[in-house]
Amino acid sequence: MEVTAEEPGAQTAPARTQKGTRRRAAIMAAAADLFRERGFQATSLDDIGAVAGISGPAIYRYFNSKHELLTQLIEDAATVWRQTVNEVLNEDAPPIVTLERLIDRAITLQLKSGNLRHVYFQEARVLDDDARRRLARIDRVTVAEWVHLLCEVCPGLTDDEARAAVLMLDGLLRSLPSPNTSMDQERLAKVMKEMAMGAVLALGAPERAVASA
Prior knowledge:
Elements: H1 18-38, H2 45-52, H3 66-89, H4 95-123, H5 129-153, H6 159-174, H7 185-201
């Protein structure tokens, strides 16, 4: 028997109709925006439902709880990025080209759904232990592959230096202010790519002479 909206908290299966798929996507999009703007604790299911165009209790047709909705959002974003990294690394290209393609894809994803990455870094603490472990495993593999690639592009780097650079590069990419700028996305992406590639290519370059005071 299908669980109705009047039965919150019960185990449910996602709707399999086109309408159900669209509604589930609308719920996730609304939740991602609201969690980023207000924070997880300050956002209710009624708030999410109002933005998604359904009643709050109807969300229980698709998710058992607000925590499950948050977990799904964050894991989906992490999985998409993991798949993207795999696709780029599996292409037969020189390391510098692979790096450029990864940065391109990262910027594209950030412009498309950067709010999910903000949600992750703001609200990861409220995830359960299993979800945090799954996300940590994905993150470790992804960072290790970036570190390996960066060491190929800049062979003078130590692993520790490359790891620090990868984390800083990730922070740079996450700062892309797509919702809060009047700049068109094409120009914004170009500026961010130039900054990211310039930062990477500066690694291991001869130090500039410091001007005397």
